[in-house]
Design brief:
Layout (H helix, E strand, L loop, with lengths): L1 H15 L16 E3 L9 E3 L9 E4 L2 E4 L1 H7 L7 E7 L2 E9 L4 E8 L15 E5 L35 E8 L2 E6 L2 E7 L3 H8 L15 E5 L6 E10 L1
Antiparallel strand pairs: 1-13, 2-5, 3-4, 4-13, 5-12, 6-9, 6-13, 7-8, 7-12, 9-10, 10-11
């Protein structure tokens, strides 16, 4: 009887197989990374100059979704840019984004959350462009295309995915050096805070905004440009 039981157990082991030691188990976020979006709620975010998030920002399939049609139905006025509750100086930020056909949005950083002093979030914070390059008119403008440091630095072409597909953007700002990585390709590298940075601003649409790009600590912002846009897997690490 024992011999028969042993044979059965041996056969089962051979059929099922022993655990593969080479298979990696799912691991937690690497040390130091902070999730800014829990995939279920808008907790940790608020509309620029307010304490809550507009109802047209929703969670859809694990992503933060700006529902442009819902905003129109609600007759909501003005920008609905949402800001992280937390403030960051030097950072490494990773965000997955997807834009709608003919859509426009952006990832803005170092925003000064003062709606009394500043009319819009983009009046203080630089922006990484989120865009349908082929469908939106901004795609025809140098320094306004997806992955560009909007109106400041033209980005390397060919990294963005077709409209409707997910893109992974990484923004690294550390000790005066900035890099934007789109889908694994470094598309922008520049310095900030130096004479060249100030010269770029002076030649841009932001030249009449006295605090634009001059305060290197602030909120992370997801832009409401009036078009459907999705963001997920929002992770940041303080540097």
């Amino acid at each position: 009887m024992q011999t028969l039981l042993y044979s059965c157990l041996l056969s089962a082991t051979l059929l099922v197989g022993s655990p593969d030691k080479n298979v990696k188990k799912e691991t937690a976020k690497p040390k130091g990374w902070i999730s800014l979006f829990d995939g279920k709620t808008t907790k940790g975010w608020h509309t620029f100059g307010k304490t809550t998030v507009g109802e047209y920002w929703k969670v859809q399939d694990g992503a933060l979704f700006l529902d442009a049609a819902a905003k129109k139905e609600m007759k909501a006025q003005g920008d609905g840019d949402i800001l992280s509750d937390a403030i960051f100086g030097d950072f490494d930020l990773k965000v997955d984004w997807k834009i709608s056909p003919k859509g426009n949005s952006g990832i803005i950083f170092w925003v000064q959350d003062d709606a009394v002093k500043y009319e819009h979030a983009f009046h203080t914070g630089p922006e990484v462009q989120v865009l349908d390059n082929d469908g939106h008119s901004d795609g025809k403008i140098i320094k306004h295309r997806a992955g560009n440091l909007y109106d400041l630095v033209e980005g390397k072409e060919g990294a963005v995915k077709p409209v409707g597909e997910w893109n992974t953007c990484e923004i690294i700002c550390n000790k005066g050096k900035m890099e934007i990585i789109l889908n694994g390709t470094s598309v922008v590298t520049t310095n900030y805070g130096d004479d060249n940075w100030r010269d770029m601003i002076s030649k841009s649409k932001f030249k009449k905004m006295p605090d634009f790009g001059r305060i290197f600590s602030g909120n992370i912002c997801l832009q409401d440009h009036g078009n459907d846009v999705w963001f997920k897997n929002i992770l940041i690490k303080k540097l």
